[in-house]
Amino acid sequence: MCSAPAVIDAVPFPALPAPGSRSRRSMSLPGAVALFTMLVGCGAHAGEAVEPNATELAETPATETGHVSLRGPSREFIEVETIAAGAEALELRLPARVVFREEALARIGAPVSGRVMEVHVGVGDHVVAGQALITLRSPEAAASRASLASGTASLNAARRAVERVHRMMSDGVGTERELVETEARVAELEADVARARATVGLLGSGGGATLVLRSPLEGIVLSRTATAGGAVAEGEGPLVEVGDPGRSWIEADLYERDLDLVHDGEAVRVSLLSHAEPVHGAVVRVGAVVDPVTRAAPIRIELDELMPTLRPGMVAWAFVAVDDAGITVPTRSVLVVDGRSYAVFVEEEDGAFVRRSVEIGSSIGERVQIRSGLMPGDRVVVRGALLLDGAADFLL
Fold it and tell me: 363: which strand partners?
């Protein structure tokens, strides 16, 4: 059991951070002197590696001029990295999920109000294109079909009237006025029949008041709200949802601050909980709208191979390759000063360091963009930066 020098009793000890913590409060220079002196006194006999004491570490405190000079073996506790723009392949990690493609999902609702007479499918059933899903009875459907039949009959009669007027005129007994009136009547009825035919076309198959809703694609019944005997209204929501799980893609959230890093065609590596190996694809669409709550825009990722085992709703991580991130440094090299500004230490010559203010950008993995303050070729401290600075709050 060793005893600390008497001077330590007069200096309050700062709280030590938890092991592995990246956010470390800085200590005052006297506190660092006391702490490192105690470590040297107590640990040297046990042969343990000891951090240099602050007196030995710095000739000129960084809190006064921003310059620090190291002496002797203290230099081994500082690691530097030479900045080279774009030299390292980086990946932006984004939260993602599996979703249906637009053309692989159908929401079938009632085109007119009516009552459900029969439900032909249940949730989870496999259906093919054209298969009956629900049978309805609707007075509106009956009225639309009757209107089409009546209009078609009137149109045929008007066309025969035009032919008759033409024959009369050829015999010298018809008039131009009759011809104009009958042709105008034909044009009016043709418009009415076209509208009625379009309305009936939306109703699908069936006759009279019967209306059969059919699946427009092959897939799985995802949901069903219709029940036999229940009333339905036009436009109230889908009665049945059908989707094809085999035609899915990945949707990831690209946060607003990272929008300038990702473009169409960027390579993507996708990690799924349900797959041991990552799958690969590319960005095919970057969303044009940022969500006001999440501050993220959706990006769509198309996989290189069709994967029938994908199921919409699966969660994933999307690692998007960033080709042009500019200058980046390890996150642990950036100091936060006064809670609102950022700085790094740059080695100007062997053992001589200066604190330099920087403007940071997006975090990309374990690195962060530097928008200003550094140039390629600068030697940045990437380990031990907090030991050099007595005014920094913590590491980024």
Answer: 368
Domains (ranges, CATH) in the chain?
A: 6-86+327-395 (2.40.420.20), 91-101+247-322 (2.40.30.170), 105-243 (2.40.50.100)
What distance in Å separates the CA atoms of residue 347 and residue 353, rounded to the nearest whole number?
Answer: 4
Give 246's DSSP letter: T
C-alpha to C-alpha distances, 263 to 254, 323, 355, nearest whole angstrom: 11, 10, 35
Q: What's this model's pTM, rounded to 2 decimal places? A: 0.56
Q: Give the whole-angstrom CA distance, residue 206 versus residue 112.
A: 14
- Contact yes or no for 144/210 (Cβ under 8 A): no
124-170 pLDDT per residue, tens: 899 999 999 999 998 888 888 888 888 889 999 999 988 888 888 88
Closest CA to 68 of 78, 80, 60: 60
Question: CA–CA separation, 199 vs 153, rounded Å?
Answer: 17
What's residue 87's pLDDT? 56
DSSP 255-310: EGGGGGG--TT-EEEEEETT-SS-EEEEEEEE-SS--TTT-EEEEEEEESS--TT-
At 203, is the secondary structure helix, strand, or coil? Answer: helix
d(CA 180, CA 92): 72
pLDDT of residue 240: 93
| Tens-place pLDDT, residues 102-135 | 888 999 988 888 899 999 999 989 999 999 999 9
Q: What is the DSSP letter of 205?
A: B
Confidence grade of residue 1 (pLDDT, cut at 50, 70, 90): very low
For the stretch 21-36, pLDDT in tens is 444 444 443 344 343 3
- Asked if residues 106 and 217 have their Cβ atoms less than 8 Å apart, the reply is yes
267-272 and 248-255 as β-strands: parallel, antiparallel, unpaired? unpaired
Strands 132-137 and 67-69: unpaired
Q: What is the DSSP letter of 215?
A: -
State the average pLDDT over residues 260-287. 88
